[in-house]
Q: What sequence folds into this?
């Protein structure tokens, strides 16, 4: 992978700032001495005449180039200027005659002698003077321009002749300030160009240097304002008056002097360029609901807005979808599961006016709503389970599923979207003591990156901005945003909100072991963290001279933000001090004592047994050497008689086990007073008013901890020693195996020796500690800063405020996309100038305001959407097909519903649901993704990270956990195979067929009907039913003669075996076919 | 029917005569199938745009492409473009050599678009070649000793030594396949253009197959074999060259009968068509029907392809299947040949995926890295070339061996070379190209492509031309392409 190099950038910049004035100086010197003119006269002119001007003259102008005069030389030909005065290497003319570039010059001729080429270089270096009078610029001080077209410095500096009382330099400055600085030097430095100071001017912009000092005509700035180069400047504006252009030319010819830093006048700064008027940066406005002719069609304002566009374009909305299609649509849309046949029947039978609305209400009230829409928001909010290497977390966080459960629960409670944003970005600052809120910060914790803090920060910034605000602030990481009014500095000020944060895992009640459960969350670790702009986005190149305070892009700032530090309570900055953690820690020690006691009892029992054997008491037992070596129960195997030696070995081994177990128990028992003493001391420490016994308790804790530590160290030492001894005394019975294993054994014993060494060190350390004066003890856990900066809380409140022009619109767009399969703003994460405008701007705004005014209730919006007539239309194209399709083939204006393919999770969940096997248990730890085809839990609960994903889901375009603002909808042969061949669909089809057969009995007709209804949510058409019945008959007959059939030879048998009875098996096949039906995965 | 005879017959006929003169008389298995399907090359473009009809625009020279991609950037000087000057001036600064002008070459900045300015600087101290080289074959083209087997095939190779690209980071991997850098987004890959332009030669297999582990997502990921706006139907279908599980869900399991499943697919097809009547303008329904048709046939055809044990021992040995080092890539190459035999149009083969920039990325330890990697691929690739040739398939199969950029003539650190977009090599063979030719050149240091410079899309243009396609006629309305996206066929290497 590419590695960043320090300092190269610096050198480049230095080179740029240094070399231009040097060149200008060289030119000036050359001009003064007449060196260049002399060269031209003596050497260059003749070369031009004989070698160049034969083609590049005023008549032939090969390649558009005419070398008759200096001005024409400077203007150049089709490929741009022929020379850059002062810089032969950048001069096309030089490169072609030096034959560094094609076409080599002289064209098809012999290369010029090297000394001639060298003289041409010298001449260009000297400013490429001709000895003819310059055609000059439109300069007013032509008389002062030297014959070379390059003014003398000396002359310029005295050129204080005034026009209207202002010096020429000042006049040029005024042109720059009025016409250029708006985009190049004030807040904006478009294309990286800053004209406010001479240094910045010389540095140039992304297109290279803006000026060639002393040579206006070769200067990009001049070419742009004179509209010689595209795009002409001012950008999209009228060309400047000729006299203003002339002022700029003079100024460049004079070496572009600055006597002050230029600045925008306040009045100019106030007038806003186009980008500031961009729709997405204006607050949404609630337009009046349009009056339309098709009044009968309008159920709610959504329909009115949609209908208005229909009428404007001559579109006719399609009729409502059939009831069964509508029901399936709204079920899958709101809860991600199809309706059961009972639910379908009930709905079809319900003739009441509000039958549909009642279904909608019950679906929105169902807990499955949170799972369905939770998955959508998990896409946008980049949910990813942890991943790394072995047990090492490198990305995201272990137990991040607590955040997933928060998402589902919050949606089910219809928590306001604004509140959700605040809790996710700053739950730790909003409700520091409430873990139910703090878990929401998984949104921020998820960005964790073990290796790269910058990447971590970058993800937090980029995705907060794209997910909530629909702005691609990420583009401003390396340079000012190319399209949107966001500066690079603003990018880093946005980052400053996140700069102090870090990630930790707090204990949860009942589980002191942090490898088993815990609450991953964020907190401000470094309250005084500084943020610096990274020059060109390079982490090696921070601009440490300016520390940046947190801030939001000015274009969106509104009333600005208010950052207030948050004081934290003891329970928050010292989470292991919480009462439940204390008692969990004590119980943990007690459990350990219980275990140690049990182990000791077990070891003692083994000693007794061995002694009995030794004494020959009881039943004669035979022991194999291997069983002794590996410590397994000798009673289990009895193939060889036992030699006395072996018996002794056995005794000494089990005796050693007892000694170790005793040590373990002693250590475990000592740990109890130690933890208790530490707790007492900590309680005293944080007591208010101060506890008089604190000192005594501290001493006691220290002592107890040291004693426990010593015993633990002794235990470790003993264990290590025993392991070492075991390793050294491997039985040599099987010489060959021993030889084979030699290398491995050696490695193991080395490791064991190392462990023993470590254990010895621990004992020594513990012993040494005992002789030290008693001072302190280990606290119960980590103590974190006692306050949080409040930065994220301020950011969150700003994002979630009613005034923010983007937040509600972005949310509405995401919701709309998932109801209709297409968003209102096609670029879901970019509402900026490079994004696409909304298809229905008034509707978008109306809904955004509706969301805000209904306390950001998303369920309100869902209800409004799914009860609209717009949503209820059919997706096929019937009556007005020709007309609508001609006017709006892509259905941009929603004259029909869009048919969609189910998302991956819905495909899998629906198969299980129809099969009657779906386990609707909610929440909890992420499940092993490899169990996806056998476990009946909902898909949302399976591990999903960039490395581990369920293959079945992946084939159906499941979310990229790093970035998924909109899902893909592909159709591939691999999907077909997943549906046709996976054990999931095969087993569920069998279960469905058997269940339906019980009800339908032997009648194939009613079976086909029931199968269609169960799997596709609709009855079969007549041809479908007939075809289905024929299939059942033929397939059954074929299966009856199974001896003539060929089985697949690959794959494993399914846990749900096919039916033995041929006609039942044919029915299973039919249901299986329906699972594979296009209509099954399609939401019509 | 031998390929040479075919060329003799059809090489110069005009389009109208094509079918009458040649097509009807063919009985040759593969090409015959192609002509039968295509009937005739496509007539002049219609006035109104229509999607491609699967027929080539003019008489093709090749029917299939095998496109190797070595991920990470192969050192051109140490492989197909040996530079003795590097040994002569080893340890010297470039500025201390007669070639100091190299550093002033305008292409240093002109072609380069840097994402992080100065990230990859010019490494001034000359690093010698890390391996010897010699002349091979009748043509005497020089190839490094890391490629003894491919070297032996040099008389069949057309080596283009004057490639350049614009980007100095691994986003150039995507660029090699689409012509555009990863930051510009995803565009149709070369394989998808071929798929889009030409009809199928075998309905049982995908027409665009991807073997090996594709490039990492940082550098373009699936975009390198994606179809972008041409639609997912035209994207590459990944097959895992692991005979145990070449295709996920390839078999329903041992308790299902083949006949049983076939009847299911037939029923499904009927059901989908019956339902599709309700939604006549839903292209997804049609796409799904097609996906099931292909899936059904893939189940048997794909595992069959991977049954490498059907090949006799001498063939297996040819690809290095008998040696541990060459076995993995040997299997991939042999699979590629089997796919070509079955008429798959475009086989994209990746080598050197490592979840990052790619294994060939030799910032340090170049000698060890390239020694190992070349050993993995040299014999298998040569085996493929020899095998194709002995079967008469090389003439109609265009083989491309590419990488995203070359490596610096100067040393990076103690023993590496940095990324180098100014000059690098691509090898091609077969498919109506000349053999034993080295086209274009870098300068004495291998720094700049100086003679017959070619941007990566020139390889695309060459491939499309040999396949009988004119990229301009494949354009999709509303999807404007830049001139550079089309490239220019490298005529000098076309036979």
A:
């Amino acid at each position: 992978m590419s590695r960043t190099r320090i300092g190269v950038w610096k050198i480049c910049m230095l080179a740029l700032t240094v070399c231009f004035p040097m060149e200008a100086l060289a030119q000036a010197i050359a001009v003064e001495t007449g060196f260049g003119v002399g060269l031209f006269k003596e050497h260059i002119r003749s070369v031009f005449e004989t070698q160049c001007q034969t083609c590049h003259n005023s008549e032939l102008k090969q390649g558009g180039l005419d070398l008759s005069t200096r001005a024409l030389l400077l203007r150049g030909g089709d490929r741009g200027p022929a020379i850059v005065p002062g810089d032969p290497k950048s001069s096309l003319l030089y490169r072609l005659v030096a034959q560094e570039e094609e076409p080599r010059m002289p064209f098809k001729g012999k290369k010029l002698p090297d000394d001639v080429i060298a003289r041409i270089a010298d001449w260009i270096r000297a400013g490429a003077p001709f000895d003819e009078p310059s055609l000059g610029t439109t300069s007013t001080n032509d008389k002062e321009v030297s014959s070379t077209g390059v003014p003398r410095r000396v002359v310029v500096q005295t050129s204080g002749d005034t026009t209207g009382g202002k010096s020429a330099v000042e006049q040029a400055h005024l042109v720059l300030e009025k016409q250029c600085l708006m985009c190049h030097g004030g807040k904006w430095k478009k294309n990286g160009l800053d004209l406010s100071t001479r240094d910045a001017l010389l540095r140039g912009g992304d297109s290279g240097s803006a000026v060639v000092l002393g040579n206006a005509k070769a200067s990009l700035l001049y070419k742009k304002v004179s509209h010689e180069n595209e795009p002409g400047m001012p950008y999209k504006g009228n060309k400047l008056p000729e006299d203003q252009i002339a002022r700029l030319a003079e100024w460049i010819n004079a070496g572009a002097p600055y006597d002050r830093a230029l600045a925008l006048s306040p009045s100019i700064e106030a007038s806003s360029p186009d980008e500031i008027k961009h729709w997405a940066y204006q607050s949404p406005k609630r337009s009046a609901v349009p009056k339309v002719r098709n009044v009968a069609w309008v159920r709610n304002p959504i329909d009115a807005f949609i209908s208005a566009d229909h009428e404007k374009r001559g579109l006719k909305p399609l009729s409502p979808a059939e009831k069964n299609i509508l029901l399936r649509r709204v079920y899958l849309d709101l809860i991600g599961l199809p309706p059961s046949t009972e639910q379908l029947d009930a709905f079809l039978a319900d003739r009441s006016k509000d039958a549909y609305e009642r279904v909608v209400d019950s679906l929105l009230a169902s807990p499955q709503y949170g799972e369905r829409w939770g998955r959508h928001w998990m896409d946008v909010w980049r949910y990813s389970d942890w991943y790394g290497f072995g047990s090492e977390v490198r990305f995201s966080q272990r137990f991040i599923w607590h955040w997933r459960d928060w998402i589902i629960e919050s949606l089910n409670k219809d928590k306001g979207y604004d509140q959700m944003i605040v809790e996710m970005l700053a739950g730790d600052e909003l409700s520091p003591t409430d873990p139910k809120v703090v878990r929401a910060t998984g949104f921020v914790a998820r960005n964790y990156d073990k290796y790269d803090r910058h990447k971590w920060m970058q993800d937090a910034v980029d995705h907060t901005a794209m997910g909530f605000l629909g702005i691609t602030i990420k583009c401003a990481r390396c340079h000012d945003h190319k399209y949107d009014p966001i500066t690079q500095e603003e990018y880093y000020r946005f980052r400053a909100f996140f700069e102090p944060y870090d990630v930790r895992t707090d204990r949860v009640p009942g589980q002191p072991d942090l490898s088993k459960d815990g609450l991953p969350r964020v907190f401000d670790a470094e309250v005084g963290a500084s943020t610096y702009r990274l020059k060109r986005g390079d982490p090696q190149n921070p601009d440490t001279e300016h520390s940046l305070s947190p801030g939001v892009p000015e274009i969106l700032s509104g009333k600005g933000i208010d950052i207030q530090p948050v004081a934290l309570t003891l329970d928050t900055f010292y989470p292991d001090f919480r009462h439940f953690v204390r008692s969990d820690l004590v119980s943990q020690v007690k459990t350990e004592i219980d275990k140690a006691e049990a182990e000791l009892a077990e070891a003692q029992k083994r000693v007794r047994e061995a002694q009995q054997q030794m004494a020959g008491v009881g039943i004669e037992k035979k022991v194999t050497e291997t069983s002794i070596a590996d410590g397994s129960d000798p009673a289990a195997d009895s193939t060889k008689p036992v030699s006395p030696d072996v018996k002794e070995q056995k005794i000494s081994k089990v005796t050693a086990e007892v000694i170790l177990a005793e040590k373990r128990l002693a250590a475990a028992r000592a740990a109890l007073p130690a933890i208790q003493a530490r707790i007492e001391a900590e309680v005293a420490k944080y007591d208010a008013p101060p506890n008089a016994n604190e000192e005594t308790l501290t001493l006691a804790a220290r002592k107890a901890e040291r004693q426990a530590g010593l015993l633990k160290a002794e235990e470790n030492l003993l264990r290590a020693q025993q392991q070492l001894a075991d390793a050294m005394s491997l039985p040599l019975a099987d010489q060959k195996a021993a030889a084979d294993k030699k290398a491995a054994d050696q490695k193991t014993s080395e490791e064991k020796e190392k462990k023993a060494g470590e254990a010895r060190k621990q004992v020594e350390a513990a012993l040494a500690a005992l002789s030290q004066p008693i001072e302190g003890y280990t606290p119960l856990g980590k103590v974190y800063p006692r306050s949080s900066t409040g930065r994220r809380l301020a950011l969150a409140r700003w994002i979630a405020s009613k005034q923010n022009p983007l937040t509600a619109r972005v949310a509405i767009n995401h919701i709309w996309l998932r109801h209709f399969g297409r968003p209102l703003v096609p670029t879901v994460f970019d509402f900026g100038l490079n994004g696409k405008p909304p298809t229905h701007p008034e509707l978008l705004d109306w809904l955004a305001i509706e969301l805000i005014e209904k306390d950001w209730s998303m369920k309100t919006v869902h209800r409004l959407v799914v009860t609209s007539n717009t949503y209820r239309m059919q997706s096929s194209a019937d009556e007005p097909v020709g007309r609508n399709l001609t006017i709006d083939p892509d259905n941009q204006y929603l004259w029909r519903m869009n048919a969609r393919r189910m998302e991956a999770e819905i495909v899998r969940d629906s198969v299980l649901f129809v099969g009657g096997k779906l386990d609707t248990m909610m929440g909890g730890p992420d499940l092993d993704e490899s169990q996806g085809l056998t476990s009946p839990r909902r898909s949302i609960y399976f591990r999903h990270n960039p490395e581990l994903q369920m293959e079945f889901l992946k084939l159906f375009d499941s979310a990229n956990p790093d970035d998924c603002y909109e899902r893909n909808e592909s159709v591939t042969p691999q999907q077909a195979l997943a549906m046709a061949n996976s054990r999931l669909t095969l087993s569920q089809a069998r279960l469905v067929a058997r269940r339906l057969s019980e009800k339908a009995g032997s009648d194939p007709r009613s079976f086909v009907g029931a199968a269609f209804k169960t799997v596709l949510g609709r009855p079969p058409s007549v041809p479908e039913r007939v075809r289905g019945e024929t299939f059942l008959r033929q397939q059954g007959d074929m299966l009856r003669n199974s001896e003539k059939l060929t089985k697949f030879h690959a794959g494993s048998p399914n846990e749900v075996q096919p039916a033995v009875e041929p006609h039942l098996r044919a029915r299973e096949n039919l249901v299986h076919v329906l699972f594979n039906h296009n209509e099954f995965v399609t939401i019509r | 029917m031998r390929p040479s005879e075919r060329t003799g017959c059809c090489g110069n006929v005009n389009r109208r005569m094509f079918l009458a003169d040649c097509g009807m008389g063919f009985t040759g298995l593969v090409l015959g199938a192609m002509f039968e399907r295509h009937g005739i090359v496509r007539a002049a473009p219609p006035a109104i745009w229509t999607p491609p009809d699967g027929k080539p625009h003019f008489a093709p020279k090749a029917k299939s492409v095998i496109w190797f991609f070595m991920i990470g950037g192969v050192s051109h000087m140490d492989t197909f473009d040996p530079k003795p000057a590097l040994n002569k001036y080893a340890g010297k600064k470039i500025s201390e050599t007669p070639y100091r002008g190299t550093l002033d070459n305008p292409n240093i900045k002109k072609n380069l678009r840097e994402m992080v300015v100065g990230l990859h600087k010019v490494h001034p101290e000359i690093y010698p070649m890390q391996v010897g080289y010699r002349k091979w074959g009748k043509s005497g083209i020089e190839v490094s000793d890391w490629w003894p087997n491919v070297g032996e095939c040099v008389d069949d190779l057309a080596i283009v030594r004057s490639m350049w690209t614009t980007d100095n980071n691994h986003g150039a991997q995507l660029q090699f396949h689409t012509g555009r850098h990863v930051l510009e987004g995803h565009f149709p890959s070369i394989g998808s253009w071929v798929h889009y332009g030409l009809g199928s030669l075998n309905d049982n297999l995908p027409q665009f197959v991807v073997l090996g582990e594709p490039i990492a997502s940082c550098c373009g990921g699936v975009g390198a074999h994606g179809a972008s706006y041409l639609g997912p139907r035209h994207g590459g279908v990944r097959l895992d060259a692991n005979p145990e599980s070449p295709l996920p869900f390839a078999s329903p399991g041992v308790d299902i009968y083949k006949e049983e499943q076939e009847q299911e697919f037939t029923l499904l097809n009927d059901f989908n068509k019956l339902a599709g009547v309700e939604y006549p303008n839903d292209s997804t329904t049609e796409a799904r029907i097609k996906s099931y048709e292909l899936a059904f046939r893939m189940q048997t055809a794909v595992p069959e392809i991977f049954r490498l044990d059907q090949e006799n021992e001498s063939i297996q040995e040819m690809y290095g299947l008998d040696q541990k080092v060459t076995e993995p890539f040997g299997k991939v190459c042999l699979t590629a040949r089997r796919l070509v035999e079955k008429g798959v149009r475009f086989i994209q083969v990746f080598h050197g995926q490592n979840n990052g920039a790619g294994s060939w990325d030799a910032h340090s330890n170049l000698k060890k890295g390239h020694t190992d990697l070349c050993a993995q691929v040299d014999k298998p690739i040569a085996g493929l070339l020899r095998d194709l040739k002995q079967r008469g398939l090389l003439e109609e199969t265009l083989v491309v061996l590419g990488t995203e950029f070359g490596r610096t003539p100067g040393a990076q650190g103690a023993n590496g070379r940095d990324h180098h977009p100014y000059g690098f090599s691509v090898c091609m063979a077969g498919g109506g190209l000349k053999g034993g030719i080295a086209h274009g050149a870098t300068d004495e240091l291998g720094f700049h492509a100086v003679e017959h410079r070619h941007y990566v899309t020139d390889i695309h243009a060459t491939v499309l031309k040999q396949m009988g396609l004119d990229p301009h006629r494949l354009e999709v309305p509303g999807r404007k392409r830049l001139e550079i996206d089309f490239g220019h066929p490298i005529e000098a290497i076309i036979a």
User: Anything to note?
Assistant: The first strand of chain A starts at residue 162 and ends at 163. Chain A touches chain B through 76 residues (CB under 8 Å).
